[in-house]
Protein: MarR family transcriptional regulator
Amino acid sequence: MEHEHIGVLIKMASLEFDRQSNNLLISENLTASQFKILKYLTLHPQASVRQIDLELFFGMTNPTVTGIIQNLEKKELITRQNHPVDRRSKVILLTEKAMTMHDKILETSNLIEAGFTNKLNPEEIALLRPLLIKLLKTQHEKVNKGGLNASQ
Structure:
């Protein structure tokens, strides 16, 4: 694996992260994608998140986010209501059921990350985070400047 392209290694790491996350979340009846959305909503003020915010933050398509939101609504963890200012838009709200899970969501997030990075020492983790952020910012800037097709 030492000679694989970095992009391939990042994709493999991402898939492994999702696999480990899904295994840990089975008992909560959540997928990794659903959990990511719930955590995002937990960390942002109530009634401040729109679907487009989720699409942009996670780099997901509208149909993908719509499906995740619909499944979370079926599980009675979120609701949607009209945006207080922009009537064309809806905000996503955590239900009371989801709000009672606040601490559990954050604890589970920490468990997932600790499990995934357990072979790294604290210095390696401290080095990895800014490198990944730098790569993501670089790609985001290229897409926004039209340098890359968003599907690349």
About this structure: Residues 12-119 form a domain with the Arc Repressor Mutant, subunit A fold (CATH 1.10.10.10).
